[in-house]
Structures are given as C-alpha cells and as structure tokens.
Amino acid sequence: METAPDDITVIPQTAASLALPAVLQTDTELWSFALSCWQKPGVASACLSLQQQGWSVTRILCAAWQANQHRTYSGLEAVTVTEWRNRVTVALRDIKRALPKESGSCYNLRAGVARLELEAERVELALAWQTLNTQTEEPAMQDRNILIIGNLTAAAPCADSARAAASDIHQLASVLTFSRPGAQST
Predict the structure, then answer these.
(1) Which three-class secondary structure state does DSSP give residue 126?
(2) pTM, to two decimals
(3) Kind and range of the H or E element at 39?
C-alpha cells in the first residue's frame, strides 16, 4: 500500500468493475413481492436477525418468492448476484453500520447510505430475477408450507446455519406464504 501525505493510507483498487447487463429491469414481480413481504409483521425483524447470523435477506426473499410461485429454490445463484452482494450491497451495509446512529452530524450521511443499500438490494433482486424468471422447471407438487420451509432452508449460508435457525425458518414460513404480492395469506 502507498502512503499519502499526512499518513493517510491509500488502498489501490485491484478489483475489476462488475459486469452487469446493459439493460436491467429493477421493477420486477420479485421486487414487488419483497416490498410486500417487508410490510408483513415480524418479517423485517426475523430477516434482519438472520442477516446478523450471516444470512442474505435477498436469498430469503428469493426462496419465499419461489415457494409462492410453486417452485423449488435450490440455493444456487448466478455468480453476478453473489459478486454484487459481496462487493456492493455488503460494502454499503458495512459503511452504514460504521456510522454512529446517535450522531446528529452523521444522520444525513447514514440515511443516504441506507438508501443506497436499499437500491443495491433492488439491483441484487433484479439480477436474481433474471435467473429465477427464466427457470422452466415444472411447478413443485409439495404443499406450499413444506415447500417454503425447504426453500428457506436452501437459502441458508450453510447447513449448520439452517439447523440453528430452524425456529426462525418456521416463523418466517408462516408469514411469507401468499400467492401474489398484496394477496392474503393462504
């Protein structure tokens, strides 16, 4: 690393820019579903609790969306989605967390970074949508409650995480099952 004047450390940029599609539709059914889910009581707190344990909220929402489409979620995702999450969404979240909540002088900065984090999650879901929306598998014949539990389990960062969060998975499954964005639970 180079040293700048006044002992400021300069970290050279070594990562190449992300390769994103030239046209990326961010206003998708998956985004609408995510917004509907987030408004349901208990979803945000359960998702954020799992996020603190290393889970990806966007993977949780993809798993729930797939179940509500009667589709199995394998937990596999395009490399672009994972790269975007790791290099952009998580980086913005880390910046937001580093800014003190109680500091009045950082309030506008923290709020701005939070808006950017949300927009990064929207892009992440749009990237996931490209893959999920093109899957041609036959609809799963399982009961939707069983399917969503299996899908949420597949969204776990690892098998141990899924076992440790079994009660959270069941709680989320009970509130995330509905047929279309804005529809009533079934």
Answers:
(1) helix
(2) 0.82
(3) helix 29-39
Q: What is the dihedral of CA 160, 80, 47, 173, to 10 degrees?
A: -70
Judge contact between 113 and 99, C-beta under 8 A: yes
Which of 32-48 are b and which e, b meaning 16 or more Cβ less than 10 Å from the residue's Cβ? ebbebbeeeeebeebbe
Alpha-carbon span 15 to 128, nearest angstrom: 22
For residue 24 the two structure tokens come to 């990326």
Higher pLDDT, 8 or 140: 140
Rounded Cα distance between 134 and 123, Å, is: 17
Mean pLDDT computed over 7-15: 54
Q: CB-based contacts of 24: which residues, under 8 Å, 6+ apart?
A: 123, 126, 127, 130
Give the three-state DSSP class for 19.
coil
User: How confident is the model at residue 43, as a pLDDT?
Assistant: 93
Judge whether 82 and 53 are in contact, CB under 8 Å: no
Amino acid identity for residue 92 in this structure: L
58 is written with which tokens? 């966007």
Cα dihedral 58→63→65→69 (10° resolution): 160
What is the greatest pairwise CA distance in the chain?
A: 65
